[in-house]
Structures are given as C-alpha cells and as structure tokens.
Amino acid sequence: MTKFRIASLAASFALLAGTAQAGTLVVHAGRVVDVDNGKVLTDQAIRIDGERIVGIEPWSDAAGRDAKVLDWSHHTVLPGLMDMHSHVADEGQSADPAGPLKSTPVRDAFIGAKNAWNTVRAGFTTVRDVGVYRGLADVALRDAINAGYVPGPRMFVAGAYITITGGGGEITGLPQGTVVPEEFRRGVADSEAEVRRKVNYLFDHGADFIKVIATGAVLTDGTEPGESEYSEAEIRAAVEEAARRGSFVAAHAHGAEGIRRAVRAGVRSIEHASYLDDEGIALMKQHGTWLVADIYNGDYIDTVGRQEHWSEEKLRKNRETTDVQREGFHKAVKAGVNIAYGTDSGVYPHGDNARQFAYMVRYGLTPMQAIQSATINSARLLGREKQLGSIAAGKQADLIAVDGDPLADIEVLRHVQAVVKNGTLVCADIGQCGNDGR
Fold first, then answer.
1. What is the DSSP pairing of strand 399-402 with strand 52-58?
2. Is residue 432 part of a domain?
3. How many Cα neighbours within 13 Å face the side chain of 253?
4. Is 92 buried (19+), middle (13-18) or exposed (0-12) by CB count in 10 A?
5. CB 197 within 8 A of CB 182
6. Selection from 410, 395, 376 nearest residue 76 by Cα
7. Residue 416 parent element (H or E)
8. What is the CATH number of the domain that holds 132?
9. Which of 23, 78, 142, 431 would be 155's cystine partner, CB 3.0–4.6 Å?
10. Number of domains making up the chain
11. 213 & 325 share domain
C-alpha cells in the first residue's frame, strides 16, 4: 500500500469519527488547480477547519504542525466537481417507457441512494438535479444526504418538471388506457395561471429552483425536440414566480425558437440547446444566460440505445440532434457564452460524469476552461460562488485528488483517487473512488 493510501486511510477513520471537527486538517497538495485565476500552484498547504477552507499557502514543515495532515503531495488537487444537469433521484433511462410507473417509492429511494454514492465518489460533490418523474423524490434524497443518512453530493433540486400535458416532461409511449398517477404529474401545467400555481407548489414543497420543459424532448416519445411547447409568456410566468421566491428557472430547450423564447423570458440557463442558432447565441450572450449542453450523451444513446432496443423514435431524434448540438456548442464557446458543466447523468450510468470533459475540450474549451465549467462557473450559475467552486479561504472544503495533470490529459478526471466533501474524507484510493467499471 502506498504512502498516499496509508495516509488517506488513516485520515478517513479520524474524519469519519468526527475528530476533524475539533481541530484543523491540512492537505499537503503537490499541485493545486486554482480555477479562480486559471493557473496551477505547486506544493501547497490547504488548511481546513470543520467544513470550511481557512487558508491556502505554500507548504512548509510548520504548515502541518498541530494539525492532522492528509498527504496528497504526489497528486493534483482540484475543487470538488459540479454537474449542473443530473437526474440522481431517478432510476435512469431504459427501453421500457413505463419503467418509472413499475417502481415504488421505497425502491426509488434505494436507487437514488446508490446513484448519489456513485456520483460523489466519482468526484462530483455538488449537482443540480433538474427533475424527476416521481415528484419530490429529489427533495427527499437531498434532505437525506444533508441529514447524513446516506452519502452523496450536495444537491440543488427542481422537485418535478413544469411541462404541458403530454409534453417533454411527461411519461409517454404507454399502452392505451394507462393511468399515470398524480405523483408523476406534479408539474403539469397548461396555462400561465397553472404554471404560476405549480411553480409555487414546488417551492412550497422544497424545490430549490424550477425546471421548465420549453420544447419537446429526444427521449420522450410523441414529442419533437425542435417544437416549442410553452409560449414566451408562460415561461416568463415561471421566471417571475421563481424570482419572487428568490430563485431561478432552468429551461429544457432543444429547438431554436424555444431557446429564444426562454432567453427572452429571463431563464437562468438553457439545457441541451440542440438547435441553438446564431440568433439564440447572440441573445444568450446579451442576457448572460448559461449554456448547459450534454454533448457526450449522443454517443451513449446511439450505442447503448440500439443495443437495448430503445424506440426507433428516440434513436432517430438522437441521430438528428447529436452533431448539430455539438456544432452549436462550439459556436457558443467561440462567442463567449457562459458555459457550465452538465451531463444529463441518468441517461448514462451515474459516476461516469467526467466522460464529458474530453468532449468539451474537443468542441472548443481549453482543459482549464472545461475544469472551470465544472467548478467556479457552475457555482456562479447556482449563485453560490462565495461558498462553492474553488479552493479558497471561506469556501466549503470540497476537494478531489487525481493522478497526473488534467491540463495535459483531461481524461485523468475520470479516475479520481480521493474525495473530500465539507471537510470529511468521503473515499480514498482503496477501491472506493472513481469509475470502477460499473
């Protein structure tokens, strides 16, 4: 067992026993990715008191005096990663459109707990969970993680999808006569008044933000990604109610017109953006709207979807949107649109979230920009940049360690060696962390 593994394992027992809360922990980092300033620092001491970072300075023998030391001196240390488009509390995509209805709340709770563990041990310490079929399941999972009942990432949750009847956020493709229970239709709204009522219902029941399905969806049979499903006025109704509650709206929007409507209505982020055009890019740039594009997913769907016999409609829509989405992403990067990291985890297995980094670099971001998209820029999207997203004094102590240099080979982020969340060692390089081929 290496020195790193011995030190990490010893620290894990101390931290998990809660002793770290009584004193200071110092992480001896060989390299630190400073995402605030876009540079790499060498041989650093990251000082943690309880759940927060209290300082970072060059390492010296005195740095670890009177403190527990976590020896990551042979590793690159980054802020905990952040995925702004996840579905942790759902079972995941399959060939059976009725799959969500065949599960139970208890079964879904166990599935969500497993997904949460796979996500955090892959280095993603914060996620924005952008909707569930069984309404408010994400709220329950978030609260269980916060209470310490199950390990998982820090979650910001939508509660349900705000969607029209039969729209992109509904369960469709079911046998004739199937009745969908109300708990799967918490956000269905077909007018401005209904949108306002459902938005407030979700906030009243624990949602952190709102997800509006502005267009059809690739993976919802009977809808088309390029077709708008809400008017600009209806989207604006959601934005106004969210603002009144001190929050924001994320818009699922594939089609060019749906994107434009959502941006003009004031949403904070556009999800997917498959048919993003020059006008949409200009509007996003003008309004400061964030782009969260799942540009890895198309390859997974085409391969696994065909193997598992997903519907031909889904496969056809995926083929039509994959390349054009990546082209639009590339144009948006060149135009300087705000980019945050979001993968649509749940379509592919949770824990594989870091696969998308290589795609983002391939389509225009530098490795540093890709890392920033999943750290400080995601924190800015959430409005939590003072608490999250970088290794700096006063911020939550969320750290990961990787072998090698992610700025030279972004793929090393797929193999996380250790994870600290809120000052506690979640997992260390003893077969607990990263993508283990599940």
1. unpaired
2. no
3. 33
4. middle
5. no
6. 410
7. strand 416-421
8. 3.20.20.140
9. 142
10. 2
11. yes
